[in-house]
């Protein structure tokens, strides 16, 4: 977002750095707190986040940061590949297979 009047010369045009477009509907559906409120009520805000609510922290009325609940990754069980591997899977490669493995990759894209 930048602020520029139509009659201003281009030298006056300075886009704001680090701007993020925020969907206004998202901001309305979350609690917005200014920095001072967030400092004094951090424990309360964290409780809101734990319950699944998003909290927006604003500076001078502009949303700056959003606190969201971290969802821990689920544990994956080893051996998740379906089926079984053939017995020869763990045997050493033959000479022909080693040569094919170590051969340079040929690309269909021409090189300059």
Structure description:
- With 112 residues, this protein is an alpha+beta fold.
- The protein has a domain at 23-67: YefM-like fold (3-Layer(aba) Sandwich), CATH 3.40.1620.
- It is 25% helix and 13% strand.
- It contains 4 helices and 3 strands, in the order αβααββα.
- A 3-stranded mixed beta sheet has the order 1-2-3.
The count of β-strands is 3
CATH topology of the domain at 23-67: YefM-like fold
Read across the widest sheet, the strand sequence of neighbours is 1-2-3
Distance between the termini: 42 Å
Poorly predicted segments: 23-29
Please report which band the strand proportion falls in: under 5%, 5-15%, 15-25%, 25-35%, 35-45% or over 45%.
5-15%
Run of helices and strands? HEHHEEH
Describe the largest sheet: 3 strands, mixed
What would you say the CATH architecture of the domain at 23-67 is? 3-Layer(aba) Sandwich
The percent of residues in helical segments reads 25-40%
Number of contiguous helices: 4
Structural class: alpha+beta
In CATH, what is the class of the domain at 23-67? Answer: Alpha Beta
Query: What is the approximate shape?
Result: elongated
Radius of gyration: 28 Å
Pfam families: PhdYeFM_antitox (PF02604)
Protein name: Antitoxin
Family: Belongs to the phD/YefM antitoxin family.
Function: Antitoxin component of a type II toxin-antitoxin (TA) system.
């Amino acid at each position: 977002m930048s602020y520029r009047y139509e009659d201003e010369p281009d030298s006056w045009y300075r886009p704001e750095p680090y701007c993020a477009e925020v969907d206004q509907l998202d901001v309305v559906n979350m609690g917005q707190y200014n920095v001072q409120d967030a400092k004094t009520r951090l424990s309360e805000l964290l409780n809101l986040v734990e319950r699944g609510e998003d909290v927006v922290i604003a500076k001078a009325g502009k949303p700056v940061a959003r606190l969201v609940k971290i969802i821990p990754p689920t544990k994956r069980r080893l051996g998740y590949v379906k089926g079984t591997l053939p017995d020869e899977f763990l045997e050493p490669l033959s000479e022909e297979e080693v040569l094919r493995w170590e051969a340079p990759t040929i690309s269909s894209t021409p090189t300059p």
